[in-house]
Design brief:
CATH superfamily of the domain at 148-234 and 276-318: Bacterial extracellular solute-binding protein, family 7
Number of strands: 11
Order of helices and strands: HEHEHEHHHEEEHEHEHEEHHEHH
Number of helices: 13
Shape: globular
Mean pLDDT: 92
Largest sheet: 6 strands, mixed
CATH topology of the domain at 148-234 and 276-318: D-Maltodextrin-Binding Protein, domain 2
Low-confidence stretches: 1-26
CATH architecture of the domain at 148-234 and 276-318: 3-Layer(aba) Sandwich
Helix content: 40-55%
Strand order of the largest sheet: 7-6-8-5-9-11
Structural class: alpha/beta
Length: 340
Amino acid sequence: MKKGIIFKAVVALVLVVAFSGTALAAKTIRISLCNSETHPQSIGLQLFKKLVEEQTNGALKVNLYYNSQLGGERESVEQVKNGLLEMATASAGPMTTFNPLFMVLDIPFAFNDYNEAWMVADGPVGQALFKSCEGVGLKGLAWMENGFRHTTNSVRPINTIDDFKGLKIRTMEAPMHVETFKLLGAGPTPVAWTELYLVLQQRVVDGQENPLANIWEVKMYEVQKYVSLDGHIYDPMPLVANLDWFNKLTKEEQVIVEKAALLGQNYSRAVNAARERYIVELLQEKGMAVNEVREAEKAKMREATQPSIVQKIKEKVDPKFIDQWLSAIEQARKDIKAGL
């Protein structure tokens, strides 16, 4: 309890000090990010900053705060919701705290590749998910890239579902992530992102799961041996704004912000896609053993997890929306196969 009070006090102090004077102007856009300035989502937002400032002739100023300077993902989105910040990015897991519909992104092994995921996120059902954020005071702007989540550990490579058994795996503080790893046979342990490296270093857990960009960013090669490319969850980073703040912008400014967000989104996707293979090579050079899980084995993992997770999510949110999401995935798959 005391730690929580101290943390909130520190965040409040940082906000007061960092944003005093002219920084508190109504047209300042402060964005909280949990990753470093070299992460794909950060690079996308650097383009966003450039475009917004140039196209508004400086009427809108964008300040980017990396590495959870203003708090973790959940804390940052809460600040946006309460009007203490203009914008933040967060993984789908923390977003479910504010909008349970984001649990659709927690469905394991839902997407086969990036093209499927992007078509769904950018399509009507993905935009409906963003629209639903307005009910909790948030404006969904773009899906900054984070990537597919993979599993690392210090015990053995994961080639089959049986290889999960007995492994203590750190997950995000997201109920469906925890449940997925239980169904795979592992022992899931929710740990905050900011504490991840330490718990791996101290061998509190055997492994963790994250996109390749994050695996490289936090130097997991120093505390982990094996990287198994299972792609169990596609995990974009929604960029959300305070709805009241956004509505107070001029119509012209709103258009500039929305277009810049989409361009930043697409740039972050291109950056991530281009460098993932390179990251694999770098991890191998650092001594990590990397293996790709075969499709037949992924199918077994999907069968062991997806039906149960879908049912659990339907018990918590509108089942019709879940069906629409799954139908959109199937349609995207057909369209890609047909070359559309």
